[in-house]
Amino acid sequence: MYARSRVKRSVLAVSLSLIAALMQGHAIGETSAQSPGASQEMKQFRDASLNNLKLLGLVLKMWANESAGEVFPPLDKRPGHLTMQGDRVYPEYLTDTGPFISPAHPEAQQLAARAEREPLAVVDDHSYWYLGYAIPDERTGLAFVAAYKSLIEAGKPLDVDLQDTQAGKVYRLRKGVERFLISDINNPAAAAQVQSQIPLMIERPGLQKGGACVLFLDGHTEFIEYPGRFPMTERFIRALQSLDELKRPGSNASG
Predict the structure, then answer these.
(1) pTM (2 decimals)?
(2) Which of 13, 81, 161, 184 could cross-link 76 (Cys pair, CB 3.0–4.6 Å)?
(3) Is the peptide bond before 119 cis (omega within 30 degrees of 0)?
(4) Who's near 4: CB < 8 A, 6+ residues apart?
(5) What is residue 36's three-state secondary structure?
(6) What is the pLDDT of residue 186?
């Protein structure tokens, strides 16, 4: 059973890698030659970014299926780097880290070249934030950012549910986490609705014109205008951007 599982996962990882290579090859460095205008180029960037997120969504689900407690990959331990721990997914679940690079990133070509030399070096939040926690609304999102800063300042890991935040308990992402967030238990569609509202990964606004791509817990992806509805509200995005300050040596997490 274990051997078959390993083979199946390896085959799927290779397939995902090939798909990623096609996506990146199409999106990075080739759109100018293929596009009749800027609008077509933007569409290609958008489509390729959505596909990146769909691919990463599959990887996250694969990882959760085999992890203890069916949790999603833990957050990076480096302060301010809102991404997953790269060595948890590469190379076992994803043999190419190119999908972590938004095709709209101004340094996409350089990042892609680096991914070939140092695959784990590009598993970062230069293109996409990975939240790691179930955040269904802005209030919870702001509470998560505040708790993140406090825990980083205290030198504590972010691998468990966050207790007593400004929005109450914030759950680490895991399979079935939506059941803790259902308000109407008599609604048979409530679980699916909650899944469709919890963002897993968010493209940084400013890379694409007018908005950014988002991956949700139910696996769907969409381009959302910025500023716009959650998770693309100004307050939440600014809170996420504020975490970049933690990357500076000697930064104060509570500042």
Answers:
(1) 0.87
(2) 81
(3) no
(4) none
(5) coil
(6) 84
Which tokens hold the place of 169?
């308990």
Q: Would you kindly state where each structural domain of the chain is located, as residue ranges?
A: 2-247
Please report which residue ranges of the chain form alpha helices under DSSP H.
2-27, 31-34, 38-66, 86-89, 108-117, 138-154, 190-195, 234-242
Average pLDDT of the segment spanning 89-108: 96
What is d(CA 127, CA 130) in angstroms, rounded to the nearest whole number?
A: 10
**Residues forming a β-bridge with 165:** 168
Phi-psi region of 210 (alpha: psi -120 to 50; beta: other; left: phi over 0): left
Q: What CA–CA distance (Å, rounded) separates 143 from 165? A: 6
Percentages helix, strand, coil for the chain (3-state, rounded to 5) are 50, 15, 40
Low-confidence winner among 109-113, 142-146, 249-253 (lowest mean pLDDT): 249-253
Tell me: pLDDT of 183 over 50. Answer: yes
Q: Which helix (H) or strand (E) holds 128?
A: strand 128-130
